[in-house]
Specification:
Layout: H1 4-17, E1 20-26, E2 32-38, E3 40-42, E4 45-51, H2 55-62, E5 65-71, E6 81-92, H3 95-108, E7 121-135, E8 143-147
Antiparallel strand pairs: 1-2, 1-5, 3-4, 4-7, 5-6, 6-7, 7-8
Pfam family, one: PNPOx_N
Protein name: Pyridoxamine 5'-phosphate oxidase family protein
Keywords: Oxidoreductase
Length: about 150
Amino acid sequence: MACDPEIKERISEYLKKHPFLNLATISPEGNPMVHSMGFASSGPIVYFGTGNTTRKFRNIEQNPNVAFTVDEDGPDVMNITGIQMEGKASFVTDEAELGQIFQLMVEKFPFMAELPNNPDNVMIKVEPTKAFFLDYAVEFGFRYEVDY
């Protein structure tokens, strides 16, 4: 069986190669909501932007515990790979960190370099607490588990 550092590296590489995630948040009323998001990553940490009036913003403001999946659409169920991640979301306010995140976003999504700055947008960082790396090629339903 693979060791933690190897699986963590596979997770980081997988995140780099995929453009979208499905983010789960919880509303102040306790209702789950899933949001499809473009994202950038640095290692296992993911970043995405949103408006300060969106449901995901309000949900994270009330409860920073989130989860997300990253996977591929494909017809071969026996070879599914993907990531299930649990983590803590926070709003990024540090200007130097925002600059680094912007560079990551532009590397992944070049069109973002041309977008006008919107003062109502915020950048969110999700730092992982637990992850599962699915690899059905090993065995149907197989997943590695790692803690951060």
